[in-house]
Structures are given as C-alpha cells and as structure tokens.
Amino acid sequence: QVQLVESGGGLVQSGGSLRLSCAASKSVLDFVLMGWYRQAPGKQREAVAVITHGGNTNYADSVKGRFTVSRDNAENILYLQMNSLRPEDTAVYYCNAQKFVDTDLVSAWGQGTQVTVSS
After folding, report:
1. What values do phi and psi take at 32, rounded to 5?
2. CA nearest 38: which of 51, 50, 26, 30?
3. Of 112, 117, 72, 74, which Cα lies nearest the Cα of 93?
C-alpha cells in the first residue's frame, strides 16, 4: 500500500499563491492516475486536478487557468501550484493515487492539508 504525505498548505490572502506537495512512498509511474481533491466544510469532496500516467492533465472548471498539477517522476512527488487564490478555494486538499491490482482499481489517499484563503 502506498503512503501519500501532503505538505504546503497554510493561510494566504486572496490573490496569493501556494504550492502543495504530495510525496509518494512508491514510484508515481506505478499509478494510472494521480490527483488533488478538496473538501470544504459541509461540502462533498471534489476533484481539483488530475494527471494520468502519460502526463495528460484535467482540471475542475473553477480552477482552470489558476492551478497547475505536475509530477516529479524522479523524486516521486506530485505538486499542485495554486495561483490567484480565492476565499472559495478554502478547503482541506487531499492527494490521491489510483492503480490497477489485477482488474480492480485501487485508490489511496493522503491525510490532507488545510488551505485557507482570507479575503
């Protein structure tokens, strides 16, 4: 089972930037999909940005043009660069990694890192 450890969260003013990191205990190339999700108080967890094994990326409409997901294959780290942050970006951000085990798609989660954007 892979271990995912997020870091980089914190308190930032509206318009500011943060970079989240997710360190994986196994090669990031083992996974068919990795990504960032977030959960705000009272809301369901939602996908923010994902990256496929091949490097293709996809973003939630609410963060397109502001957030960038990337991966360091040598260091086994997933990043989320967040620019032009807004108060509505406030949430706990989770790293996710998915791989096939036989025919089952297995998902692993990090413990989450809090991002708070003040207005």
Report:
1. -75, -25
2. 50
3. 112
48-91 pLDDT, tens digit per residue, is: 999 999 999 999 999 999 999 999 999 999 999 999 999 999 99
In this structure, what DSSP letter does residue 85 have? -
Distance CA 54, CA 36 (A): 17
Cα 30–34–83 angle (5° rounding)? Answer: 140
Q: Cα(36)–Cα(15) distance, rounded to whole angstroms?
A: 20
Cβ contacts of 68 within 8 Å, gap of 6 or more: 49, 57, 79, 80, 81, 83
Place of tokens 């989450």: 112
